[in-house]
Amino acid sequence: MNVFLVAACLLLGLLLGGGSAYLLEENCGAGASMTRVRRVVGGHDAKSLAHPWMIMVHTDSRFACGGSLITSRFVLTASSCSTLPIKKVLLGGHDRDSPATFLEVSIDRKISHPQFDPLNPFKHDIALLRMAHEVIFSDRIRPICLSINQPLEKVQFYTLTGWGRTADGKPSRILQETTLSALEHARCKSKFDVQVDQSQFCTTGVDGEACSGDSGGPLSAELLFGFKKRAFLLGLVSYGDASCRSFGVATNVTHYVDWIKATIDENSS
To answer: Looking at the domain assignment, is residue 171 inside a domain?
Structure first.
């Protein structure tokens, strides 16, 4: 092999984490609009097809919380959501008044993090939902990226998406998005009088914050992997200020990647 080609391969291996880095799902992280992050109280209507990993988690009769498609069969959400009597997920839609645009799939397994305590739900607020069957990827349905064996760069701003309560106090009809800014942990610890550690991060809204109905929804950022920008799942909405206009705490998804991968492997059959 040409010595220059060998050197290039070694350099690429280092850039991707010593040759061992990979994505949980290779066909991930591409929406219809990957060129902007727009600034669900205080949010804006998201562009159709921009977040094809966005999930609505439902009980038999109502919308309960948000979630993210991470493989063809698994959804990531909050453990505080999985304690509800959820039965199904809705994928691929944008407008809640257009139910025919959503794909409805039953949930056959809920797997909360083993350290999550419903009586003290401020830690380990992360859960996997296994769908009853795999879904086919398309422009409307596509997973968000999770990086395996490669630490991701720290970011200052996250994109939050959800159908949660907006400024008028009602759940949003159209999928909303807003930008959240990272804060030092001490700000949220002081606000909520609970310990915020490295398995979480503290945020505040640039134009808005997460609200009721947004729990379990994704906080994402566009990052370079190899030579291509993709959307990565970095956090899940956990809890926040009752006014939805102050601070919020998110579960740090990157802290739980090993658990996510092992749990999917154990529950894939």
So the answer is: yes
The two structure tokens encoding residue 94: 């944008």
pTM, 2 dp: 0.86
Domain that holds residue 94: 37-266
The reply to whether 192 falls in a domain is yes
Is residue 130 assigned to a domain?
yes
Locate 57 and state its tokens: 């988690």
Residues 6+ apart with CB under 8 A from 199: 123, 124, 251, 252, 255, 256
Q: 32-54: b or e for each residue (b if 16 or more CB lie within 10 Å)?
A: eeeeebbbbbbbeebebebbbbb
Provide the 3-class DSSP secondary structure of residue 139.
coil
CATH number of the domain encompassing residue 211: 2.40.10.10
Q: How far apart are the first and last CA of the chain?
A: 41
**Helical (H) or strand (E) element with 22:** strand 22-23
Count of structural domains, the chain: 1
CA distance 4 to 173: 55
Q: Taking the CA atoms of 117, 120, 123 and 128 in sequence, report the sign of the dihedral they define.
A: positive
Cβ atoms 68, 114 nearer than 8 A: no
Strand partners, 218: 236
Domain-embedded: residue 104: yes
- pLDDT tens track of the chain, all 269 residues? 333 332 333 333 333 434 478 999 999 998 765 433 333 444 578 888 899 999 999 998 888 899 999 999 999 999 999 889 999 999 999 998 888 999 999 999 999 999 999 998 999 999 999 999 999 999 999 999 999 988 888 899 999 998 876 555 567 889 988 899 999 999 888 888 888 999 999 998 866 556 655 789 999 999 988 888 999 999 999 998 776 767 889 999 999 999 999 999 999 88
Q: Are 181 and 215 in contact (CB under 8 A)?
A: no
